């Protein structure tokens, strides 16, 4: 019987993988303050601690559209080469400090062009910053690999342009694609041409679906657009009654389509009502390939360690459960098969074994 004490120290030491995390939602508060001062942008407060609290409070609206509106101030400081380099580098270092060994960061380059950079220049600059962060993390003995997902904003008209950039930069650190933004009223099939182009070019993609809109959004993302993963997908539970799976839920489970679930974020946007009752636990127990994610670390005031701790404390998760969602994430990463296997074999599984060997018993 495993009697390991699952406390924050143990959780912090575990190797982690995150597939759903937005670059513009994860800045350091102090960095936002400094860059905003340099850009002449007015913030709600210039105290980093107060700003961090403001983000979380503003995002706790229960409404996805208002949640997204909090990004005004982070995007304002990500319009220059200097701002992008710094925020991308710090993003990687913050993942490494949290024990993340593999991460996929996503952002929409069209939102970073107000300062005169082209979308292509934005991507080049972010990749440069991410590479600098990975080099520093490796030198510090906390290596982390970070791949990039480029996003198109589903409410606007540059989705195909972003998809073309994903194709162009796929040998330079971009591992996939996504569409983001307000889900309700902007169905994924509106951008079918972009997804067809990505499939022709063998570029994998995920789609935000089943967060602010229900089963039709998930069905369209999978069966019309061809997504390989689903961002959030919490409303797939509408196709599960008394533990019996409907045809769509069965399709998702049986074909091992990863669900990128983000508990704290889902509480903020009203997609879930509690950590204890979040669909991630029930769907894990039903055999879905659920993954655990942060979504927006600044906006949600969270980290992977915190997300794991909340599930342990409020939903009764064990170390085995944490291992399961980490393995699920690595298996579903937009990496070549042999690289996923090596990450599991050489990093994730030995890391869990080492943490358990050195941890106190309950």
- The CATH superfamily title: Metal-dependent hydrolases
Number of helices: 16
> How many strand segments?
10
Mean pLDDT: 94
Structural class: alpha/beta
- The radius of gyration is 19 Å
Going across the biggest sheet, name each strand in turn: 1-2-3-4
Which ranges are low-confidence, i.e. pLDDT below 50, for 5 or more consecutive residues? none
Which shape, going by the Cα principal axes? globular
What is the N-to-C order of secondary-structure elements (H for helix, E for strand)? HEHHHHHEHEHEHEHEEEHEHHEHHH
Helix content: 40-55%
User: Which second-level CATH architecture applies?
Assistant: Alpha-Beta Barrel
Cofactor: Zn(2+)
Catalytic activity: 2'-deoxyadenosine + H2O + H(+) = 2'-deoxyinosine + NH4(+); adenosine + H2O + H(+) = inosine + NH4(+)
GO cellular component, one term: cytosol
Pfam families: A_deaminase
Give an overview of the whole structure:
With 362 residues, the chain is an alpha/beta fold. It has one domain: Metal-dependent hydrolases (TIM Barrel, Alpha-Beta Barrel). The protein contains 16 helices and ten strands. It has a four-stranded parallel beta sheet, with helices on both faces. It has a four-stranded parallel beta sheet with strand order 5-6-9-10. It has a two-stranded antiparallel sheet with strand order 7-8. Helix 8 (159-168) packs parallel to helix 9 (192-200). 50% of the residues are buried. Residues 15-347 form the Adenosine deaminase domain. Belongs to the metallo-dependent hydrolases superfamily. Adenosine and AMP deaminases family. Adenosine deaminase subfamily. The record marks 232 as: Important for catalytic activity.
């Amino acid at each position: 019987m495993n009697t390991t004490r699952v406390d924050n120290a143990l959780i912090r030491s575990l190797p982690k993988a995150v597939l759903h995390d937005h670059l513009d939602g994860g800045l350091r508060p102090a960095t936002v303050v400094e860059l905003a001062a340099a850009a002449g942008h007015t913030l709600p407060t210039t105290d980093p601690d107060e700003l961090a609290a403001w983000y979380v409070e503003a995002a706790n609206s229960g409404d996805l559209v208002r949640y997204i509106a909090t990004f005004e101030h982070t995007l304002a400081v990500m319009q220059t080469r200097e701002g992008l380099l710094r925020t991308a580098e710090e993003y990687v270092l913050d993942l490494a400090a949290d024990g993340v060994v593999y991460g996929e960061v996503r952002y929409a380059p069209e939102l970073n062009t107000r300062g005169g950079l082209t979308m292509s220049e934005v991507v080049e600059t972010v990749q440069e910053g991410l590479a600098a962060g990975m080099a520093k993390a490796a030198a510090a003995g906390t290596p982390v690999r970070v791949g990039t997902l480029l996003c198109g904003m589903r409410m606007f008209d540059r989705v195909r342009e972003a998809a073309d950039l994903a194709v162009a930069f796929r040998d330079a650190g971009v591992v996939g694609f996504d569409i983001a933004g307000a889900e309700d009223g902007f169905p994924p099939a509106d951008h079918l041409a972009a997804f067809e182009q990505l499939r022709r070019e063998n570029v994998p993609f995920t789609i935000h679906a089943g967060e602010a809109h229900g089963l039709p959004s998930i069905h369209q993302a999978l069966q019309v657009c061809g997504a390989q993963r689903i961002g959030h997908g919490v409303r797939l539970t509408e196709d599960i009654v008394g533990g019996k799976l409907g045809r769509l839920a069965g399709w998702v489970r049986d074909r091992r389509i990863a669900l990128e679930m983000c508990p704290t974020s889902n509480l903020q946007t009203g997609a879930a009502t509690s950590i204890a009752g979040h669909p991630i636990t029930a769907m894990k127990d039903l055999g879905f390939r659920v993954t655990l994610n942060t979504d927006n670390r600044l906006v949600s005031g969270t980290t992977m360690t915190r997300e794991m701790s909340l599930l342990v404390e409020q939903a009764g998760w064990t170390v085995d459960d944490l291992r399961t969602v980490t393995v699920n994430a690595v298996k579903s990463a937009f990496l070549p098969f042999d690289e996923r296997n090596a990450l599991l074999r050489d990093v994730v599984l030995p890391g869990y074994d080492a943490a358990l060997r050195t941890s106190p018993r309950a």
